[in-house]
Amino acid sequence: MPDRVAILEYQARIWREVWTDGRALPKNVGHKGGPSTMYFGYSVGHWEGDNAFVVDTVGMDDKTWVDRRGYPHSIDAHVIERYTRVDRNHMDFTETLDDPAYYTQPFIIAKNTYRWVRGQDDPKAAAIPFSNEWLCIPSETIEYMKIIGTPADEDQATGSKKQ
After folding, report:
1. CA-to-CA distance for 7 and 18, rounded, in angstroms?
2. What's the whole-number mean pLDDT along residues 121-137?
3. Which of 1, 17, 69, 104 is spaced 20 to 30 Å from 159 by Cα?
4. Helices in 94-158 by DSSP H: which ranges?
């Protein structure tokens, strides 16, 4: 769309709007005189060069988590997502969190390289994107098991038992 990009979250069947019309991020979100927080916050995006889309997000509801491990964030957290098209079939993704209320410095909370799998749009060859079918890729299954399959009493980042 000319004034925004919709980011579709396949597994949860939800979407986010990233405004690209030049508007500024809202100020004082969740504080007196500012807008209310929202589950996914307020996002604005811009292009850097021809192949990098950068999304800035503020105002996320502080009841949400930073990641699947349940790390917290404040309503003043600032997230920067960078989607970089490396070549025709590969896209790098990096997500950085800056939240001085909880963390001493900004840090990368997600980093991944996505690749287009030949034939994934062919219903006879593999799953159809945005359908109920799942595309089975061994490397994705391994990553899924690292994140989801980790026992609840183990910190997935460090591998140590939680206290």
Report:
1. 7
2. 49
3. 104
4. 138-147
pLDDT at 89: 82
Count of beta carbons in the 10 Å neighbourhood of residue 74: 13
Predicted TM-score of the model (pTM): 0.71
Would you list the domain boundaries of the chain? 4-116, 121-155
Largest CA distance in the chain: 55
pLDDT over 80 (residue 47): yes
Pairing of strands 42-48, 52-58: antiparallel
- What is the 8-class DSSP label of residue 131? S
Give the three-class secondary structure for 48.
Answer: strand
Q: What is the pLDDT of residue 135?
A: 47
Q: Which helix (H) or strand (E) holds 86?
A: strand 78-87
Q: For Cα atoms 113, 114, 116, give the angle at the middle one, nearest 5 degrees.
A: 145
Alpha-carbon distance of 85 to 95, in angstroms, equals 15
Residue 68 is given by DSSP the state T
Predicted confidence (pLDDT) at residue 134 exceeds the cutoff of 90: no
